[in-house]
Amino acid sequence: MTTVTSPLSGAAVGLSAVPDPVFSGSMVGPGTAVDPVREPTVAVSPVDGIIVSLHPHAFVVVDTDGRGVLTHLGIDTVQLNGEGFELLAAKGDSVERGQSIVSWNPVAVVDAGKSPISPVIALEASPDALAAVVEEGPVETSTTLFKWK
Q1: Helix, strand, coil % over all residues of the chain, rounded to 5
Q2: Which domain, by its residues, includes 8?
Q3: d(CA 49, CA 27)
């Protein structure tokens, strides 16, 4: 079983409330989301593993069981072309849970007219593969968001 922790501090938000049909419809996979604190912050790795995909607005870490966890920083933030995001790691890096990956400012995302809500997705998982999914309440970067059976 893989424990996936929050990459951000803020408030948990169920996927159905994410303002993007791809995420709210679980088309990418099941999971949850975090509405981050409104201050400059750092997104951290939600699992131990290897960064297999890294963009200013999103990253995927694959754990030792081959399970990929996507963290998408905000909605439609790809349209910001990396502005306001700083990569703190590189594709191919081995990372530990809690290790810094991307520095960003959710306030700048809001100011640009985008949602800062950040989905955390279990890629290629079936909906019944997740347990103890947190969909509301405050979370810190160490808070468990879900368990992947």
Answers
A1: 15, 40, 45
A2: 2-148
A3: 24
72 catalytic residue (yes or no) = yes
Distance CA 113, CA 88 (A): 25
Instruction: Report the alpha-carbon distance of residue 55 to residue 138 in Å, rounded.
Output: 26
Q: How many residues does the chain have?
A: 149
Q: How many CB atoms lie within 10 A of CB 135?
A: 14
Q: How many domains does the chain have?
A: 1
Q: How confident is the model at residue 142 (pLDDT cuts 50, 70, 90)?
A: confident
* 67-105 tens-digit pLDDT: 999 999 999 999 999 989 999 999 999 999 999 999 999
Residue of 72, 106, 119, 146 marked active site: 72
Q: How far apart are CA 45 and CA 99, in angstroms?
A: 5
What is the Cα–Cα distance from 51 to 71, expressed in whole angstroms?
Answer: 11
For 44, the token pair is: 């951290």
Here the CATH number for the domain that contains residue 67 is 2.70.70.10
- Give the per-residue pLDDT at 127: 83
